[in-house]
Inverse folding.
């Protein structure tokens, strides 16, 4: 269609010619990275959709083959910006599995605590995302401010705010500073005290309920078949959580139940995040209470020249978006032979997009994406 | 736990935050109650500092740097032997991972709590001249001028080497 001869008003007036391509993304604020959908529109309704990937292709997996085992740790957190720690931990766990080493208990607890803190930051962003994509910006502002509290704790523990680079093969890089855990518990109390506020403006808001109810329904069977994981899977009634089913770090020592809900729509997924947020606060409190004294790292020799014996391993970690897995092959050298990353967003971002979006109005697309926590870097790596 | 929908006026409880203190503070006067010292955390990974007298020019930092941000260069007026070379860091590349600090065998390389990278780029444009940006300010040899504001250090106990 030639826009020089056709003004948009004219197109709208001549009813027969109302289909057009709408580029949703690659720089849409509801999108957590450069990824887009090309929507074939009829008026305000979507006819069909083409996922438009490739603009975030930074070649993580290939880059990892060219850097040392430890150097790669600066790269892996970038695969999921909002929730970076599961990547570090999954990568380190795979390397440790190939090397056949067991990390000290205290390191396991520190990993658990950072994983859960990272989950909180991601959930707070998700809460903000729900607000923002529905045009309700108050929760977005609130959650950004609350997230800053955890960022400060990360800054104190690791020295970095967004990318912590805290885990290394053999444990964690440094012990917690004095007074850290007390302050962390205070922060947890503060965050828990905020929950009623979020409930009243977002999770119990009748308008939010109206907007999200029935949006993007995924049945229990389909969720399992298409490989959804994490809160998305549990919001469809499947009781699966890597932390419980294939326990790692300090999760075997912590007491928690898998939260599931029946429903499978965007509203259920929003409430799922709300419920797991509370569970995460509880897990951090337990871990802080139980953390033992001791070393935080095994001495694996020279960091820069770390050699990993030939072998392969796959380890997975439950992130705020689902299951993150790292399959690593070593040929015995100072660099990985192959690293393959399994990200949680692929089934939702590609499969479910083509199924769900064509039934939707354009205003719901961003809310739908937020509800499935689609994070483009992890399928566009 | 069930979270049901409430009355339409429930979201209006947000109005109470109008009477709270603002969360944001004016940069750079940030006073954080989280940290014992004012400002950023005591373990912050900021601009490097290097005790040039202690550094032995071993080049471990150069080798570990994942983004090749470190160049070993000879300071002016020094004899051209390996132990006189000192690291120069390109902050356009550095990702502040602090691996170089972790591997430094003499603990001379540390990171400070300074993070402010804004410089006034001198941009000159007169008639017929090309625009010039000063980019060298991002690439310099860390010295101990920030020694009084140390952030991330890898103490002897946590040494990664040996
Ligand atoms: S902090 Fe990391 S990226 Fe920066 S110079 Fe040191 S090793 Fe290189
Ligand atoms: S690792 Fe330390 S001692 Fe060696 S060159 Fe770098 S700063 Fe100097």
């Amino acid at each position: 269609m030639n826009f020089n001869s056709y003004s948009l008003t004219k197109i709208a007036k001549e009813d027969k010619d109302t289909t057009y391509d709408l580029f949703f993304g690659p720089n849409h604020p509801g999108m957590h990275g450069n990824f887009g959908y090309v929507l074939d529109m009829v008026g305000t309704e979507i006819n069909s959709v083409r996922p438009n990937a490739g603009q975030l292709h930074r070649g993580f997996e290939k880059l990892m083959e060219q850097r040392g085992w430890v150097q790669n740790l600066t790269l892996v957190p970038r695969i999921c910006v909002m929730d970076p720690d599961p990547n570090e931990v999954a990568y380190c766990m795979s390397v440790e599995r190939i090397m056949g080493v067991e990390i000290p208990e205290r390191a396991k607890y520190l990993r658990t605590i950072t994983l859960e803190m990272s989950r909180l930051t991601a959930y707070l962003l998700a809460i903000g995302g729900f607000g923002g994509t529905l045009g309700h910006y108050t929760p977005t502002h609130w959650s950004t401010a609350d997230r800053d509290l955890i960022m400060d704790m990360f800054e104190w523990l690791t020295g970095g705010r967004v990318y912590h680079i805290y885990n290394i093969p053999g444990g964690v890089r440094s012990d917690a500073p004095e007074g850290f855990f007390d302050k962390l518990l205070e922060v947890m109390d503060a965050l828990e005290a905020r929950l009623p506020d979020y409930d009243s403006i977002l999770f119990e808001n009748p308008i939010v309920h109206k907007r999200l109810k029935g949006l993007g329904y995924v049945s229990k069977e389909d969720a399992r078949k298409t490989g959804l994981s994490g809160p998305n899977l549990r919001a469809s009634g499947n009781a699966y959580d890597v932390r419980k089913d294939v326990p790692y770090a300090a999760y075997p020592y912590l007491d928690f139940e898998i939260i599931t809900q029946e429903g499978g729509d965007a509203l259920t997924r929003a409430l799922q995040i709300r419920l797991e947020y509370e569970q995460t606060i509880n897990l951090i409190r337990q871990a802080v209470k139980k953390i033992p004294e001791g070393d935080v790292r095994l001495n694996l020799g020279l960091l820069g020249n770390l050699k990993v014996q030939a072998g392969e391993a796959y380890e997975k970690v439950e992130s705020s978006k689902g299951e993150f897995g790292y399959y690593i092959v070593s040929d015995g050298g100072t660099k990985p032979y192959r690293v393959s990353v399994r990200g949680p967003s692929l089934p939702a971002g590609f499969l479910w997009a083509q199924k769900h979006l064509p039934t939707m109005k354009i205003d719901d697309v961003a809310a739908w994406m937020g509800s499935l926590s689609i994070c483009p870097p992890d399928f566009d790596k | 736990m069930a979270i049901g929908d409430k009355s339409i006026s429930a979201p209006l409880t947000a109005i109470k935050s109008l009477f709270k203190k603002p969360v944001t503070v004016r940069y750079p006067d940030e006073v954080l109650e989280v940290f014992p010292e004012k400002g950023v955390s005591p373990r912050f990974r900021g601009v490097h500092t290097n005790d040039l007298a202690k550094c032995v020019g071993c080049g471990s930092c150069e080798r570990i740097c994942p983004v090749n941000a470190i160049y070993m260069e000879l300071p002016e007026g020094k004899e051209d032997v390996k132990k006189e070379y000192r690291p120069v860091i390109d902050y356009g590349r550095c990702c502040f991972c602090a691996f170089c600090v972790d591997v430094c065998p003499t603990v001379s390389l540390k990171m400070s709590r300074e993070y402010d990278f804004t410089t006034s780029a001198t941009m000159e444009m007169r008639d017929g001249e090309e625009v010039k940006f000063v980019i060298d300010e991002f690439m310099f040899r860390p010295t101990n001028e920030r020694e009084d504001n140390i952030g991330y250090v890898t103490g002897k106990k946590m040494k990664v080497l040996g």
Remarks:
- DSSP finds 13 helices and eight strands in chain A.
